[in-house]
Amino acid sequence: MTRTVLVTGGAGYVGSHCCKTFARAGWNVVTLDNLSRGWRDAVRWGPLVEGDVRDPIAVRGTLEKYEPDLVAHFAAFAYVGESVENPAIYYENNTAGTLALLNGMRAAGCRHILFSSTCASYGVPQHIPIDERHPQAPINPYGWSKMIIERMLEDFGRAYGIGSVSLRYFNAAGADPEGEIGERHEPESHAIPLAIEAARRADQPFTILGTDFPTPDGSAIRDYIHVNDLARAHLLAGEMLLERGGTHVFNLGTGVGTSVHELIEAVERVARCKPVVRRGPRRAGDPAKLVASFAKAERELGWQPQHSGIDFIIKTALEWRDRHPPV
């Protein structure tokens, strides 16, 4: 029997790639998105319900109409700096929005949810690589908004029998290799598309935020994971959750760190053009190094990153950018 997944935020970056992956695996896919930060033309694998997870009528009506076996919840704001400047919208949209969604699921009898969480819930790492047992100590409202949701999911699991998987992403990157969807943010804040733009346009320099970190080349180190690897992990996690139930948490990263200087070198290598670079101060609270352990996901989901070499990530992101150059 064909399964159905309701994807909140399915018009966004990671959500749309997950929609494609679920559809390719034979699932019926329904997207619920208010299009405030998503893109209508990214919804290609099933119907779009234009609505907000904070709207109980829209949520319950969608759940009752489509009767999904699983909810994949991506709808959220995700800019760290914005969360510091305006925390109210993060707790309202991310945390309260998820509470409204969970209450709608309870009312409709939907009992399984995948949650798009974040490594930002760990805060400044105490050890590298970071595994799921690492203490969670967020240093910004974005991280707190996601960590609170994880606690909500634990409580809803115990009290109401809602099974969940929280997937803590490290640095999502790249684009669909077939070119159907890619990364689009307004404003763009992710390092790889910004570095690519600096290689394509001399008037758009890339700023290295900190050159005095305690790392081999002085720049921050991050764990970049291809968005298609993330999408495949969601599919595997959804299948596991429907079979086993329970409350689960997994890191999604590669175990490999890439410094900002190494990232710039990779963009130059792939784009065959040197990005224009300038140096700036560190951002407050930026850790020197964030690298995941994905051993638990490998052990329990049978998942490994397969497309997350930095050159391949940049190649797919560059091809997407060249097909859809900024206006």
Automatic annotation (TrEMBL):
<comment type="similarity">
    <text>Belongs to the NAD(P)-dependent epimerase/dehydratase family.</text>
</comment>
<protein>
    <recommendedName>
        <fullName>UDP-glucose 4-epimerase</fullName>
        <ecNumber>5.1.3.2</ecNumber>
    </recommendedName>
</protein>
<dbReference type="InterPro" id="IPR001509">
    <property type="entry name" value="Epimerase_deHydtase"/>
</dbReference>
<feature type="domain" description="NAD-dependent epimerase/dehydratase">
    <location>
        <begin position="5"/>
        <end position="253"/>
    </location>
</feature>
<keyword id="KW-0520">NAD</keyword>
<keyword id="KW-0119">Carbohydrate metabolism</keyword>
<keyword id="KW-0413">Isomerase</keyword>
<comment type="subunit">
    <text>Homodimer.</text>
</comment>
<dbReference type="InterPro" id="IPR036291">
    <property type="entry name" value="NAD(P)-bd_dom_sf"/>
</dbReference>
<dbReference type="GO" id="GO:0033499">
    <property type="term" value="P:galactose catabolic process via UDP-galactose, Leloir pathway"/>
</dbReference>
<dbReference type="InterPro" id="IPR005886">
    <property type="entry name" value="UDP_G4E"/>
</dbReference>
<dbReference type="GO" id="GO:0003978">
    <property type="term" value="F:UDP-glucose 4-epimerase activity"/>
</dbReference>
<comment type="pathway">
    <text>Carbohydrate metabolism; galactose metabolism.</text>
</comment>
<dbReference type="Pfam" id="PF01370">
    <property type="entry name" value="Epimerase"/>
</dbReference>
